[in-house]
Amino acid sequence: MPGRLVGHGRPNPIRPTRSIMPPTPTFPTSQINPRRQDPEPSDPRLSNSQQNSKPSNARPSNPQHGQGESDRGQHNRLHLSNFFATLSSLAENDRITGLFMMVCALAGLILANLPETGPGLNALAAWIPLDLPGGLSLSLKDWIQDGLLTIFFLTMGLDLRQEAATGTLRDHRQVLLPMLAALGGVAVPILIYCLFNLGSPASLRGWAVPTATDVAFSLAALQLLLPKAGPALQAFLMTLAIFDDLIGVLLIALGYSSLGQPSWLLVCLVGLVVWALLVRAASRSARLWRPLVFLCLLGALAGGLLAWYSLFKAGIHPVLAGVAMGLLTPVARSKASEAEATEAEEPSASTAPNLTEPTEHRPTDTKPSGNEPTETHPPVTSQANTKPAGFEPTEIEPNRNPTLSPAERLDHFLTPLSALVVLPLFAFFSLSISLDQLGPGLLTDRVFWGATLGLALGKPLGILTMVILAGHLGLRRPAGSTTGNMIGLCQLCGIGFTMSFLIANLAFAGSPHLESALLGVLAGSVLSVLIVAVGTTPGRLRSARHT
């Protein structure tokens, strides 16, 4: 399961790239007019009398005072813009987000087993922050799992919608091989888990735990351990993860949801319709009246919350509302946005010289005569277009970048929150489990071995088998891929965190098997990385000797 579904490790041709350290801003400097320079006084007493004649509360005139305040305001907005741009760059870095999530998961496991911090951490996870009516008196851990994790699923839906409209999912010939590989990577782990847990109905509830791939970790490991893997292999891995996520969503909806009150599904449908309509209205009313955009976004948020609560009451896991909301967000730019983009790209008629004018009407450079002093004036620019160098608009200033669709705007705004806050918190509290009750019995636990071998063995075996079968059917492997790189990529698909943790919590809520399943996911992911690391060590040593 990815920390972020797509976009890691590759630039998006639609979304503008942002630099962590933009160029140093330059501001207009005050120009000195030689005619207005005060002559130096010849008599010192005259100078003193002039200075003493000024009232004590008089302030020196500063013609650039208003311009300076405007520049300071732009400078402050620049720093805020750079802060959000830095967060976005960090959130889109596979290595940083993957390592951060791994550190949080290990920190939760360590703190939960220390005698000084274990009881306090358990009390924090069981704490009920809000006593709300309607069955919403949830613990902090439940709010993170059922509430905050919806933000991650919303970004997943946005990425799926974008890929289906303008990305790799639009070309059916390119998606057939990753789709078949994803099916094999789900079927074989389920088979291995069920073989380990036959005869135990309680243990069989976790049959879907080893089916997910975390593409953020997988891409980071691919770049570190298989640096010669080309862009085609990375695109293959990301497309495979898209179908893997779709299958995971279906497994949660069909296998781990119980429809208790079907009437709430109609309310959920109403909330999703409100979301879809008001998000489109917000993108189209940007040029009419800006307060209307804010009202539309508030209404869309209310519709999304209604859809989330309706699924919660219906007995379906509420995070699926985030996927539906993302899929209903428009990816095409409105006509108003396209008009703004066209106006921004075309040069202004007032500033561009008209080469079709007669020569006598064109502006010419006039040289001043020797009797008149020259004056240096700053270039006259429109106040609306005066921005310091390096200034880049972000989502905190809506509709300043007309080249982004509503789905891209929302995804770019939510990605830092999802990758740097939601997923690390989820990993921290998911692995905050005590190992005292497991002990040596963990080595004979069927749930543990089913999850571990399902990821470390079943995932690569299923994906590689389908790739070989597809090759016999005439489907080509990714360009530039070798047998060794393909085997390593399939093995790295055994890294599963977010979705595997979520399915384990759904399958074994309140069961002693929960700790075994979570530790099995962690062990299978680490084992997959170690297998690739050990297998590629001789090649890295040979490359180091040659260099």
From TrEMBL:
Keywords: Antiport, Cell membrane, Ion transport, Membrane, Sodium, Sodium transport, Transmembrane, Transmembrane helix, Transport
Pfam families: Na_H_antiport_1 (PF06965)
GO cellular component, one term: plasma membrane
Comp. bias intervals (Polar residues): 45-67, 366-386
GO biological process, alphabetically ordered: regulation of pH
Chain positions covered by the region annotation Disordered: 1-74, 337-404
Main location per the UniProt record: membrane
Membrane topology classification: Multi-pass membrane protein
Alphabetized GO MF terms: sodium:proton antiporter activity
Catalytic activity entry: Na(+)(in) + 2 H(+)(out) = Na(+)(out) + 2 H(+)(in)
InterPro entries in UniProt: Na/H_antiporter_dom_sf, NhaA
Transmembrane segments: 175-198, 204-226, 233-256, 262-279, 291-309, 413-435, 447-475, 487-510, 516-535
UniProt record similarity statement: Belongs to the NhaA Na(+)/H(+) (TC 2.A.33) antiporter family.
Official protein name in the record: Na(+)/H(+) antiporter NhaA
Source organism of the structure: Bifidobacterium apousia
Gene: nhaA
